Amino acid sequence: MALPDTAPLLVGLLLIFHALGAWAIVEVNMEDKVEVMAGDTAQITCMFTTDEGLGGTTIQWFYVLPNKKRQRIYNKEPMHEAAEQNTPFTDRISLNVTGTAAVLVIRDVGVKDNLEFICVIKTITPEEAEGRTKLQVFKSPTFPTIEAVERGVSVNEEDPSKIGSCSVKNGYPKPNITWYRNNMPLRITPDEVDLKSSITIESSGLYSVQSELRMKVKKEDKDAKFYCEVLYFVPGATKMTESQHINITVYYPPTEVNIWVESPKGKIKEGDTLELRCENNGNYPSSITTIKHQNSGSSVENNKMVRTNVTRLDGGVYECTFTETDNFEEISGSTKVLVNYLESAVITPKDSITVMEEEELKASCNALSSLQTDITWFKNEKLVSKGNSLSVKSATFETAGMYKCVVTVPEMEGMKTSGTLQVNVKGSPQILGPGVQEVETYETTVNLNCSARGFPAPTIMWTTSDGKNLNALQTETEDGAQSVVTFKITSSVKVFCNASNDFGSKVVEFNIKAIVHTTPTTTTTTSTNAITDDTVIYNTSTTNTTIPSTNITFINDTVQTPTKSPNIKKESKGFVIAIIIIAILLLAILGSVLYFLYKKGRICGRSGKQDFSKRKSSKDNIVVEMKSDNTEEAILLGVNGEKQQPNDQ
User: Fold this and answer.
1) What are the DSSP calls for 572-598, one per residue?
2) Which residue has the higher pLDDT, 407 or 493?
3) Of 55, 27, 25, which is closest to residue 126 (Cα–Cα)?
4) What region, left, alpha or beta, does residue 648 occupy, with left being phi > 0 and alpha being psi -120 to 50 degrees?
5) How far apart are CA 275 and CA 595, in angstroms?
6) What is the b/e burial string over 617-635, where b = at least 16 CB atoms within 10 angstroms of the residue's CB?
7) Fewer Cβ within 10 Å of end Cβ, the chain: N or C?
């Protein structure tokens, strides 16, 4: 029984130490706080010193309850140590003692572990010491979300309007939200800026914070960027994160209204399609825009007006009015539209003018326009004069005709008008071409053309040298008349074209020489009766005669022969003579051949009579008669090649 013997000894020792005043000294040192992220492992160190060493030292750990009472969670004695049962830390803590350091290890720290922990060191003597450390647990919140107000915000609102809301969740300690407008922080300002926040503590102990921004907006806020900034804590630092930036719709009344011509670009002319547009520098949903033409009073409730095929009457002032339907305040803007015009060309004298030959011709052309014009005169598509006046000092028949006055506006493409003037020149007719025209023709039908200038239009008559009147077709031309006559000729004849009007007459003579051309006539005689004693008698002949014709046409006052000309007549005579010579040579050769055959006795034996009817006729018994246009004589060539008189036939 050692213990009963030892107890008095220990008590005695204590009395001795107490009497001597030799108590053990105990000191404890701990950090004020230990910071750790939720979910990590926390280590709280308790540094202590004692004269007795570890053999007689007791270490105890406590945490402070909300009511300030202590709750022991771990106890270590010289001979025994263990975590207290039925505490929030029973399964998550352990104690590591090394030398004079006792480290309390807490695993899987949560935000509920954000407590104050106490380390108590006791010795055998009644002396003890303690230290305190506050465990701070941190949890980063989620990324902030921001939502802008869906509807627009009016600058006319009396109270601050909601701009948006910003929220952040599951942070510890509680995150802080700050609002910004264009990078400038917003603070609560009476009647101007209002910030309302709400805090929610989740079942996990984490904080969720929501903040709402309300403010009175201005027109400048239509382009402002709003966002929120979240400030939160981590071990040893402070962090910040920004939300997305938002923009709100700001409704504000206009201070200016603009109206302009959308099309056409540049100057406007009659006939164009006019489109006007109207805009204001406001942004108000409940408003009415009206465009009105002050001259006519017509209007449309729209920011666009279209007018087609405009005239000068569509010019003038157009006004655009903006009406705010909330308070019916109005603001207007206007523009002036000029529609350029070009009236029809006016020629003086109107339609036509008649002047005497060699008199002066004067005419003028004008067109009323809002812009500068250019005037040109044309005749037969050729430029004859520039400017509004047309002047000819001495008119001739060449002056007569249709003139066109063209008025254009150089500044605007497409602005153009024109008018015409018929110029007539009075005077005795003039027949185009020489007064006497010589014509030779092979044809039996001729066409004669006679053109005369003059005003009034001449009357054209056709007559022949023997006093006959020829029927002809007459047509009026730009400067006179034209007539064409067609008739048959059998011999040379003179034809007269007589053109006359109120101021005189003119005659042109056509001397038509008819040339008759005859081709050689070939007569073939074939014997058909039996003749006596080696004589073939010619008693049948066939004559073929061809006479060509020539068509003469007189066109445009000039006598022409489209098929043959006088040069052709000379060539034709030479051709006929050559044909006659060749025919004579061929007949001579044929006669020689027949004579040779006859001498040889191969045809028509030279003795005795022959019954011609019993023989077949052949080209051995042919008598050819050649006649020319220039002789009455016929040459007979017999089989003996001798010349025979016609009466010998």
Assistant:
1) HHHHHHHHHHHHHHHHHHHHHHHHHHH
2) 407
3) 25
4) alpha
5) 112
6) eeebbbbbbbbbeeeeebb
7) N
For the beta sheet containing 93-98, the strands, ordered from the edge strand earlier in sequence to the opposite edge, are: 26-30, 42-50, 101-106, 93-98
Question: Quick one: pLDDT at residue 487?
Answer: 80
The pTM assigned to this predicted structure is 0.52
> Is the bond leading into 264 cis (omega within 30 degrees of zero)?
yes
Span 282-304, mean pLDDT? 89
- Name the token pair of 325: 């339907």
Residue 448, domain extent = 433-514
Structure tokens at 18: 């107490």
Q: CA 280 from chain center: how many Å?
A: 31
351: tokens are: 């339609």
Domain count across the chain: 5
pLDDT of the residue at 492: 82
573 belongs to a structural domain = no
Q: Three-state SS for 450?
A: strand
Tens of pLDDT, residue by residue over 320-362, are 999 888 778 889 999 999 999 999 999 999 999 999 988 999 9
pLDDT of residue 19: 41
Among residues 427, 448, 469, the one where a domain terminates is 427
Spatial separation of the C-alpha atoms in residues 107 and 119, rounded to whole Å? 18
| Helix, strand, coil % over all residues of the chain, rounded to 5 | 10, 50, 40
Distance CA 442, CA 517 (A): 7
The answer as to whether 378 is a domain residue is: yes
Q: Give the residue among 193, 197, 188, 205 at the shortest CA–CA distance from 168.
A: 197
Q: Are residues 132 and 149 in the same domain?
A: no
Q: Based on the domain organization, do 42 and 128 belong to the same domain?
A: yes
Is residue 133 situated within a structural domain? yes
Per DSSP (E only), the strands in 436-550 are 436-441, 445-455, 459-464, 469-470, 473-476, 480-488, 493-501, 504-514, 521-526, 541-544
CA dist., res. 239 & res. 136, Å (int): 16
Position 179 confidence tier, pLDDT thresholds 50, 70, 90: very high
Lowest mean pLDDT among 96-110, 114-128, 182-196, 567-581: 567-581
pLDDT at 249 over 50: yes
Mean pLDDT confidence for 403-416: 93
- pLDDT score at 40: 95
CA distance 135 to 113: 7
Residue 8: asked if its preceding bond is cis (omega within 30°), the reply is no
Q: Which residue, of 498, 514, 530, is where some domain finishes?
A: 514
Place of tokens 């000729």: 489
Residue 12: what pLDDT?
46
Average pLDDT across the chain, whole number: 80
Counting Cβ atoms within 10 Å, is residue 13 exposed (0-12), middle (13-18) or buried (19+)? Answer: exposed
Q: What are phi and psi of 19, to 5 degrees?
A: -65, -35
Q: How far apart are CA 474 and CA 460, in angstroms?
A: 7
Using CA atoms, how far apart are residues 577 and 584, in angstroms rounded to an integer?
Answer: 11
Cα–Cα distance for residue pair 131/30, rounded to 1 Å: 6
